[in-house]
Fold this sequence. Notes:
This protein is α/β, with parallel strands linked by helices. The longest helix has 18 residues, at about 205-225. Helices cover about 30% and strands about 20% of the residues. It is built from 9 helices and 10 strands. It starts with 5 loop residues before the first helix and ends in a 13-residue tail after the last helix. It folds into 2 domains: about 35-110 and about 195-270, P-loop containing nucleotide triphosphate hydrolases (Rossmann fold, 3-Layer(aba) Sandwich), CATH 3.40.50; about 115-140 and about 145-190. A 6-stranded mixed β-sheet has the order 6-7-8-3-9-10, sandwiched between helices. A 4-stranded antiparallel β-sheet has the order 2-1-4-5, with helices on one face. It holds the Pfam family ABC_tran. GO terms for molecular function: ATP binding; ATP hydrolysis activity; transmembrane transporter activity.
Amino acid sequence: MNGVYQLPLERALAGSTAPERAAPATAAGGSPVLLSLDRVSVERGGNRILEGLSLDIRRGSITALVGPSGIGKSSLLATLNGLLRPASGTLSVDGIGRLQTPASLLAHRRHSATVFQEHALIARLSALDNVLLGLADRRHPLSPLPWPRALREQAVAALAEVGLLAKALSPVSRLSGGERQRVGIARALVREPRLLLADEPFASVDPALAERLAGEFQRLVRERALTLVVVLHQLDLARRLADRIVGLADGRIAFDGPPARFDAQAQARLFPLHPAPAPGQPQ
């Protein structure tokens, strides 16, 4: 690790807590809906995988996307991030409008971030360097110069927020699965997003750690005024984490409502070959 990282890291370590940050505020007169899909269809490899989806995502909400494997949940997440262009229909974002031009897509991506299932980290780099990669679009990609001091301090603060300040200089290869997932979360937070997307973020950790990480997501949504859309296969965890569940089946929205309405009957419509267990039985 290059010595240029030492000063901001030592100062953060001496403080023992992350630098105080102002609570984000919703713009005056802003819409309660952050982004909206209007009859969106998505294709991959020439195949139509999502058909005519209409969906409003409200600010400050936690939406869980559930459904059988291969149904298109990750494709929907990529569409929400502007990485996958709809074959038809429109995606609109409050304050930006329809995502139809390179400029509008860039503006949306600047305020979005994704946490990946398999972390998508570089094992030989430190936790701090991996978090800095979340800011790669803030400087020239071929720059040989050290990261600007302000960005390094921003990355340190993100690691502190997820409880990994002490591991900032440790290679990711030496971290546990849970610690790696926290690095992935810090890399997303360092972008200071409005929209946080998470693709099966608990798939590689044990149930107890998944519960703790879910609690971290809820805290971050509350404290940072984030909007979270998360793909989950753990249905009980989706019920506890989210305030809204959207279920996909046959390329369409088959369920959309609060967790209390996602009962055995609704689950059976999404997973006909895997009916819900009887009350008291684990899933």
